[in-house]
Design brief:
The protein is mainly α. It has one domain. It is built from 5 helices and no strands. Helix 1 runs parallel beside helix 4 and helix 4 runs antiparallel to helix 5.
Amino acid sequence: MASPEKALCDKLVFTRNLNIASPRVLRELLFDDLRLDEESITRFDPKVIEACIMPGMKEKMLRALLELVNSMKGDLKKNGRR
């Protein structure tokens, strides 16, 4: 069974005509369209997302996802929650 991180990466990579151009649009896709819980994203393992990144396979979008996850984890630590 795939991890949540791998499942999301696969969803982004294999969804036809999906090309996320900005962090704002990525957030809208994840939290409004796919209805992911923001707290669940903070539990994602960035190493799994890094392992999914391959040249030519929507690399830019997966790097944006990785950046979002790391940013949300950083915000969580900065606010004193784990």
